[in-house]
Amino acid sequence: MVSARFAIRPGNTSPLGATPSENGTNFAIFSERATKVELCLFDQSGHSEIARIPLYRDEQDIWHIFIRGVGQDQLYGYRVYGKYNPKKGCYFNPNKLLLDPYAKSLFGEFSWGNAHSADEVFWQLDSAMDMPKCKVSTLPYYTGTKPNIPWHKTVIYECHAKGATKQYTSIPEELRGTYLGLAHPNFIWHLKSLGITAIELLPVHSFVSEAFLPERGLSNYWGYNTLNFFTPHLAYAHTKQEREFQQMVSVLHEAGIEVIIDVVFNHTAEGNEQGPTLSLRGIDNQTYYRLQQNNFAYYVNDTGCGNTLNISHPKSLQLVMDSLRYWVQVYGVDGFRFDLASILGRDQDGFKKHHTFFQTLAQDPVLKGVKLIAEPWDLAIDGYQLGNYVAPWREWNDQYRDTVRSFWRGDTSMLPEFARFFHGSSHLFEKKGRSVTSSINFITAHDGFTLADLVSYTNKHNLANQEENRDGHDHNLSTNWGVEGQTENSEINALRLRAQKNLLLTLCLSNGVPMLCGGSEVAHSQGGNNNAYCQDNEISWIDWHANGLDEPQQHPLYQFISRALKLRSEFSLYRQSHFIHDDDPRFSVTWLNEHGALMQDSDWHNPDGHCLGYLMEDIQDDKALLLLFNASSNNVMFKLPEQEAHHCWRIRLSSHSNERDDECVSPGQMLTLSSYSAWVLSSHIKMPASKQHATDTSQTFNLTKQGV
Question: Considering only 108-117, 205-214, 657-666, which range has the smallest mean pLDDT?
């Protein structure tokens, strides 16, 4: 049905998507294998289809049309014709209303039903009633001033756009759990006072829940099930999601906080061959997805989510690149964390660190300056690629996470590993001049135990997910310190608090870029659920007042993190981009045993060694930083360094207590390190004109041997 009231003519083939102008709107969509494409227009309710208009095709397989009189807010979708043969990887079906991959706004809700099925049994069912509609929309380019914070000053706060503020009572109720809630002055003050320079938001692209979740009364909370790559998720908006997301970014920028978004370009919500037909599958399945070469009926599933985006195809690559540019130019975001990033560097022969995607990104004038963070693995055989990305990429360092967890729960033989990861993971990243900031250090993230649960549960407790506790990681490297879960035992609770401080102090003062998981500052617990992806409720929403506090900033962990990050900003060591070695002209780093002497080979390889000192001397600033770690169950008498250059050692921070803060201890004196505790001391130094290194041949050999 073509309505006579619409004046139509061939349109432009670029840009793809719906582009409104003064006189009308241009529509363009790519499909190589389609035989016919119809544009469907809907009334303002989204329920009634008012016109179907065939598009023109050009020689590059772009279907296009210009419609006079159609403008902003017009609702639309597509119906695409062609062969229907799932065994050959073809799912064309005009009965399925399809979303424009380049839609800039969506209207209405998605509802699961048989009409979405790609199965031949449901071929004739029309899906339009259960589909959101695309909405013609345009936003001006972002014009705010970006903070442009260098990596060596970056401190990341990973959080959920809804869960971060849903229960933050000092934010107006109508704004809690929204983009504007994140931009509220009280939450910004919370972040700034903590020491945060960037928030990293879990996926904010429009997404839907997997079909089985609503049947269980659950939903996809994390958002790793993308429906569209250009539109902000509607549920996080107060009224208009596009404007509010742009406003959120602008306000955060004014406060000096960058915005990084987690993007999922490895798979989509259409799932495997039994999944729904929503967009790309019905437009050109063989273009947009990787199919098994010996059987096109099945998808390559290197993601574990049913399908894998075919990033090697020029049009799939263009889709991803256009999306990234759009979020930078229109929404003003400062960077991206790429979920299962190894997928993006993969072709039929495996992972390539110089894959076309990486090269295209590197030369793009819009994107070459943004922050790029890889989750450096996927589910393929060669999927684990930590350390194999190239500058300017940064990488989530899960080996750092596991090593620090193991050390602080008292595992044996951890000193060498702990030292080299604390010092920046040079064995992974110091390749071809990569920076010490290549490592994104973290102890906890959205996936896995929260920090509080890491020290309260030995086993996962995921029954609320209704998968009989089979889901989630089993290798958590956690400990409950005597009781599984919550307890009234004051000694255990004190130990758990100290254990969290140990992990946080290590994170804040390690070389690399620290990333805090939102809620760590108030000991947020998920009741031992280490896979709360489907818990859009109080399990996941940060409980800012769980401990009876009037304000989150009163929590001892909040105050501890704030102090630790202030210490980090005080020392130039953490503002360097290069790795520190024995021949550094400015910094001297020395590893000490409990006797205040250089670590020897026997110390490094003592399986029962749990105590370590890290001494950094800054010749230029005349400062010394001393960190002491005791991960044993016994108190340790630690002899402080006694070089003549050191003035008195000032205790700056301790996970044990704050009773001795600012106390001065003379060089050479013994300091009692309580069991499971970490300490930070500083001193002013006077060094001769020519730098005197505190290392010797055995020390250098041992550190090199261990990869520190």
Answer: 657-666
